């Protein structure tokens, strides 16, 4: 029988990319260490920072919330939790409850912002109109609207950093998607915070060096109350890319890390996105955009909706 490569106990995972076996304790230690190293390596958080962590209630974001809660008590960091309620019945209502209970347990302030109050409709309602067009791309709409709302809410809450739970798999999928779509501009913007733009809260991703599978096992071992189910709207190219990368990783372990490292090597050679990048105010909602109309408003217009130009955080 295999043993943990570090302590000889029963293993819970075989990390094929590094060739080692880890038991429950050694896996927990490894996840927590990589989380701290990722923050330190990129100087993601400074003492005195106010960090808003985006928590959907899924296993990744719940794990990140616990990791950051622990981290912030030792580092003079103010932490609060933000949840976007897209309005997905049977899915988000369950995870919203988990996010609320989790933040309460940790004694963290929890703010919820809904699509309905910000945009006038729930995602379910938007999906119904999108279905009528015959080209439903609900997942893409949701992603763009959610990102924009996260930024606006974090800014209004006075955040210095917005932490999201993107893991290694998410990062690799996004990089590959940009290659496949041939989108050099978007690839250049990926993982770059526009310098000195106070309208954009700098985003940090402390789980980006940890494979999804390890975070899932970590969340289970730590007994976190979190949602495992996948959103029913997930579709399109991203799922194909995910399956393709997973297949590659199965036959060629280290593929995911190599794709991420290759992107990091390539990044300094990509066009400088901050150069000539001029921000205007969106003529409808006032949010920052390089165009006259921001992308969320453009999408909302197609659905006959409008973003409300007002503060979304009331207290
Ligand atoms: Zn061990
Ligand atoms: Zn707008």
From TrEMBL:
GO cellular component: cytosolic tRNA wobble base thiouridylase complex
Name used for this protein in its record: tRNA(Ile)-lysidine/2-thiocytidine synthase N-terminal domain-containing protein
Gene3D superfamilies xref list: HUPs (3.40.50.620)
Cofactor(s) for this UniProt protein: [4Fe-4S] cluster; Mg(2+)
Species whose genome carries this gene: candidate division MSBL1 archaeon SCGC-AAA261O19
GO MF term list: 4 iron, 4 sulfur cluster binding; ATP binding; metal ion binding; transferase activity; tRNA binding
Keyword field contains Zinc: yes
Annotated SUPFAM superfamilies: Adenine nucleotide alpha hydrolases-like (SSF52402)
Residues the record lists as binding Zn(2+) 2: 282, 285, 294, 297
Entry keyword set: 4Fe-4S, ATP-binding, Iron, Iron-sulfur, Magnesium, Metal-binding, Nucleotide-binding, Transferase, Zinc
tRNA(Ile)-lysidine/2-thiocytidine synthase N-terminal domain sequence ranges: 50-218
Binding-site residues for Zn(2+) 1, renumbered to this chain: 4, 7, 23, 26
Pfam name, any one: ATP_bind_3
UniProt KW Transferase keyword: yes
InterPro entries the UniProt entry points to: CTU1-like_ATP-bd, Ncs6/Tuc1/Ctu1, Rossmann-like_a/b/a_fold, TilS/TtcA_N, tRNA_thiolation_TtcA_Ctu1
GO biological process, one term: tRNA wobble position uridine thiolation
């Amino acid at each position: 029988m295999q043993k943990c490569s570090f302590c000889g106990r029963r293993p819970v995972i075989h990390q094929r990319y590094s060739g080692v076996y880890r038991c429950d304790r050694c896996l927990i230690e490894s996840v927590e260490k990589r989380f701290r190293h990722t923050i330190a390596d990129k100087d993601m958080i400074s003492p005195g920072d106010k960090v808003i962590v985006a928590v959907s209630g899924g296993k990744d974001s719940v794990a990140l919330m616990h990791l950051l809660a622990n981290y912030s008590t030792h580092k003079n960091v103010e932490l609060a939790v933000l949840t976007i309620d897209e309005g997905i019945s049977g899915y988000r209502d369950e995870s919203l409850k988990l996010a609320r209970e989790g933040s309460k347990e940790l004694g963290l302030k929890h703010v919820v912002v809904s699509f309905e109050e910000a945009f006038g409709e729930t995602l379910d309602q938007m999906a119904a109109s999108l279905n009528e067009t015959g080209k439903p791309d609900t997942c893409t709409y949701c992603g763009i609207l959610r990102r924009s709302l996260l930024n606006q809410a974090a800014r209004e809450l006075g955040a210095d950093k917005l932490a999201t739970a993107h893991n290694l798999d998410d990062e690799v999928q996004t990089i590959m998607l940009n290659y496949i779509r041939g989108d050099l501009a978007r690839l250049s913007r990926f993982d770059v915070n526009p310098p000195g733009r106070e309208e954009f809260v700098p985003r940090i991703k402390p789980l980006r060096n940890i494979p999804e599978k390890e975070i899932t096992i970590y969340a289970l071992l730590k007994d976190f109350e979190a949602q495992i189910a996948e959103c029913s709207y997930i579709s399109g190219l991203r799922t194909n890319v995910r399956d393709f990368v997973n297949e590659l990783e199965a036959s060629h372990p280290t593929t995911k890390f190599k794709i991420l490292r290759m992107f990091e090597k390539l990044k300094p050679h990509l066009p400088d996105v901050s150069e000539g990048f001029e921000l205007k105010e969106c003529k409808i909602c006032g949010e920052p955009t390089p165009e006259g109309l921001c992308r969320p408003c453009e999408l909302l217009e197609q659905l006959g909706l409008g973003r409300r130009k007002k503060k979304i955080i009331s207290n």
